[in-house]
Amino acid sequence: MTMATSAFSSFAAIGNREDISDTIYRIDPTDTPFFSGVEKAKASAVNHEWQTQALRSAAANAQLEGDDITAVSRTPTVRLGNICQILYTSARVTGTQRVVDHAGRDDEMAYQEMLAGLELKRDIEYNLVGLATAKVSGATTTARKFASVMAWITTNTDKGGGTAADPTAADGTSARVDSATLSAFTEARLKNVIKKCFDAGGKPTVVMLNSFNKQQFSTFTGRSTPMEQASTKGIVASVDWYQGDFTRAKVVANRQMRGRDCLILQTDMWALAHLPGRNMAAFDVAKTGDADQRAVLSEYCLVSRNEKASAGVFDLTSS
């Protein structure tokens, strides 16, 4: 078949309107399991502090009838702190772009600001669980940094026998040292650190890890063989909860975590403390030239209420 003779076609036409969908499609992940799953608190100073308390070990206790009471000494509280870190991003749009017609959004600045907020949330998650960072007090030419989760967990760890080193103290002043030798994630390693948590008084509620080791987790006992559900014509091959001897924990994949880390967390023992008015705050930036600019900013620190309630399996193979 050929085109009809002298038929005027779209190839020759001038003035046909463009056809562009009014929907913008985005697949980049924006979930932030740690940021969204821990409690929020208030900070009133750049160095936010809190206290922990330890009890003495249980002991045999049998006393004489009528005996004088002997004074018992108590362990003092431990004063801990973390540094509030500033994170921000911005959106800048020219005056022309703000007034021309757009597809998929009414206000270009509002759209760019929304994207900036999503990106900032991912930055926050990455700084919390994707980096092994010790706290930095900062100076005029040095940015302040809070100690990430990896700088707090030191009591209940499994490093697989490599050359890794836990933080020297559970106070955020030193980050963990990674090993050059990696080893596979196993249920035995997981059970080892959960037992340590229990013995220390903790009860983890979440197991958090990256995509590769989430799939490894799904091969542990109880889900080593996929189960077919005839009624739904589906195959169940994943693990969403782990019921062990000492706890029942939700298993969560976190895209921002390093492949080598698995965190076992009692989430109520962690919090994010923001300075007043600095929690995902959006504001105008001074106008320069024919463009408008908005910033989205957060200033906060990570609060480790008691790291003994949580654990980590580290230096895992991730491919």
Describe this structure in words.
17% of the residues lie in helices and 25% in strands. The protein has 319 residues and is α+β, with helices and mostly antiparallel strands. The strands form four sheets. A six-stranded mixed sheet has the order 5-15-11-6-10-9. The N and C termini lie far apart (54 Å).
Question: Any key phrases for this structure?
Answer:
319 residues; 5 helices; 15 strands; extended
For the termini, the CA-CA separation is: 54 Å
Poorly predicted runs: none
Q: How many strands, which pairing sense, and closed or not: the largest β-sheet?
A: 6 strands, mixed
The percent range for strand residues is: 25-35%
- What is the N-to-C succession of helices and strands? HEEEEHHEHEHEEEEEEEEE
Strand order of the largest sheet: 5-15-11-6-10-9
What is the arithmetic mean of pLDDT? 91
In short:
With 319 residues, the protein is an alpha+beta fold. Helix content is 17%, strand content 25%.
Record the SSE blueprint.
Blueprint: H1 33-37, E1 39-42, E2 47-52, E3 78-83, E4 85-94, H2 95-99, H3 108-129, E5 157-158, H4 187-200, E6 206-209, H5 211-217, E7 227-229, E8 234-236, E9 241-243, E10 248-253, E11 261-265, E12 270-274, E13 281-285, E14 291-304, E15 311-314
Parallel strand pairs: 1-12, 5-15, 6-10
Antiparallel strand pairs: 2-3, 4-14, 6-11, 7-8, 9-10, 11-15, 12-14, 13-14
